[in-house]
Specification:
Blueprint: E1 4-8, E2 20-22, E3 25-28, H1 38-51, E4 55-58, H2 67-74, E5 82-87, H3 94-108, E6 112-116, H4 122-127, H5 134-152, E7 157-160, E8 165-169, E9 181-184, H6 190-197, E10 200-204, H7 208-224, E11 230-240, H8 243-254, H9 259-270, H10 275-283, E12 293-295, E13 298-299, E14 312-316, H11 317-328, E15 332-338, H12 342-352, H13 354-359, E16 388-393, E17 397-402
């Protein structure tokens, strides 16, 4: 199966330094933050689209712009890119969510993907009026997805659940296609919900052995339900022409972050109820700068000040491609990537790593250019004067002629 790659839209801001935020940590960076305007996010989205990413994850939380509204605006400045919209079931009714997804699919011509986020911080949930505890939130998420799935199937739904109640709920128009549901969670309460309702189970980037154990757990739970889920992973990336360049960039990212900034961020993350966040913190022993390469080419430095996904693939383009293939050998087919800054790192990865995976037969561009518009490149060609370049003709294969832009007829 061809691997699928998604990028990330930094709706809390972007920059040349790590932009912290999420899971109990406020947005901040050691340097300047690029504001998440539609103009800037549109730059990233169009670049991701051109480079061959299939979709772009947009986060949710009090620390970032609203994902539904931001991505709806961005559909107008993109053509093909899908939007993986993160949202929290406790903040919206299941019937309205199903209707919004249906509308988004029609208006965007099928470019919606959904990332269901149950919520790992009770303090933030309470700010939105949600006073359930973590396990109760997962139970409610199961009820929520049951209603939404049935509505998308065209049912008239009446349900009197423990947390949610609807009567005679029905959609006037069904989504076409039905959007895939992406779901992450490492706790015991998360597993059964993911196995029952998700299309793609997501994990953050831990060493392959730990990832494999988690994926086998989810796979077993899904089989008990008579289901099979696709597998995905969320990672940052720093890839360069050489390994040395990539590791210099990794060190540059954390150089301006002092110990006080790390301690403050880790104090916030330590209060998180998220099992996944606890596992991320363990990778760097709760803020230790030493030994951040926790597996070959897997670096935990991002997680020193950022909540959520805290690991990055670091190395030459070939080394990063090798690590991706290692994760793919575990059954992972979807990769959600990002970097700092998101705009520039999209090009480093898209022009450095993806072509290697394409040559290895692991990836194909979702919208390749037609053969007749592929540019012929002559290395070190002069910019003035006549230049001889190969020109392919339909009859004889190739002839040569001056690079004037005129079409040559093969004889």
């Amino acid at each position: 199966m061809s691997l699928r790659f998604h990028w990330f839209l930094p709706t809390n801001g972007d920059g040349r330094d790590i932009v912290g935020g999420g899971h109990g940590v406020t947005t901040g960076a050691a340097g300047a933050i690029r504001p998440p305007t539609i103009g800037y996010l549109g730059q990233i989205a169009r670049s991701a689209e051109q480079l061959g990413f299939e979709g772009a994850l947009t986060p949710t939380g009090a620390w970032c712009e609203d994902a539904w509204l931001s991505t709806a605006m961005l559909t107008e400045v993109t053509e093909r890119l899908k939007f993986l919209v993160a949202f929290r079931p406790g903040q919206i009714s299941p019937t309205l969510s199903a209707q919004m997804a249906s509308t988004f699919q029609r208006q965007s011509k099928g470019r919606l993907l959904l990332n269901v986020v149950t919520g790992g911080e009770s303090a933030e949930q309470r700010a939105y009026g949600d006073f359930l505890d973590k396990d109760q939130r997962y139970e409610r998420t199961g009820e929520f997805l049951d209603i939404v799935r049935r509505l998308w199937d065209g049912e008239t739904v009446t349900k009197d659940g423990k947390y949610l109640r609807v009567e005679g709920a029905r959609l006037a128009r069904l989504p076409d296609p039905v959007p895939d549901v992406y779901f992450g969670g490492s706790s015991q309460a998360a597993g059964p919900v993911a196995a029952s309702y998700s299309d793609v189970y997501l994990t953050w980037g831990e060493p392959p052995a730990d990832v494999d154990k988690k994926l086998r757990w989810i796979g077993s739970l899904a089989r008990e339900q008579g289901r099979e889920v696709r597998l995905g992973i969320r990672l940052h990336t720093i890839s360069r022409d050489t390994s040395e360049e990539a590791w210099r960039q990794a060190e540059r990212l954390i150089a301006p972050i002092d110990d006080d900034m790390i301690a403050k961020a880790q104090a916030g993350l330590a209060r998180s109820e998220s099992e996944g966040q606890r596992r991320m913190r363990e990778l760097h022993q709760g803020g230790d700068r030493r030994g951040l390469e926790i597996y070959p080419n897997l670096w935990a430095g991002v997680g020193l000040v950022r909540g959520g996904a805290g690991t990055s693939l670091v190395g030459s383009h070939t080394e990063v491609a090798d690590r991706i293939e290692e994760y793919a050998s575990l059954g992972i087919t979807e990769f959600i990537m990002s970097g700092y800054p998101c705009l520039e790192e999209a090009y480093w990865f898209g022009e450095g790593v993806l072509p290697i995976l394409e040559r290895r037969g692991r990836w194909t561009h979702p919208a390749p250019l037609p053969a007749d518009v592929t540019q012929t490149v002559t290395p070190f060609a002069p910019t003035t004067g006549p230049v001889t370049v190969p020109v392919t003709g339909p009859a004889t294969g190739s002839v040569t002629g001056p690079a004037t832009g005129d079409k040559l007829a093969a004889s």
